[in-house]
Specification:
Elements (H helix, E strand, L loop, with lengths): L3 H8 L5 E3 L4 H11 L3 E5 L5 E6 H9 L10 H4 L1 E2 L10 H11 L3 E6 L2 E7 H23 L3
Length: about 140
Amino acid sequence: MPNVQTLLDRKGRDVATIHVEGTVLDAARKMNELRIGALVIVDDQDRLAGIFTERDILTRIVAKEIPPSEAIVGDYMTTDPVTTGADATLDECGRLMTTRRVRHLPIVENKKVVGLVSIGDLTRHEIETREQTIQDLKDYMYRG
């Protein structure tokens, strides 16, 4: 069973972050620029402080008519986000994301974020695995 480490080796370990004292406007602009749905929030020691998602923007900022240029991301982020380690299997990640209803899972080792797995990453991996299985079966069936 493939684990998070395998996925991170393939997709990379780059994690989009913003400092806990950044503004919500800066966070939203960064998310738009990178075309992503979440930012990992870090403290002065680059440790995980929280996560800030599109859902946080909608429910905690827009719905309450808070000016994003005046709001500090640390005040509106999701604190104590669901995390896992690089040794977790992809099935474990999927179950964790489903039961906890999250779409982004920071990967943490020694209190540092070393990667991020999204529900899209898991879906992409599943599709690629199935396509490879289909190709292997075709190759087996049509071997001459």
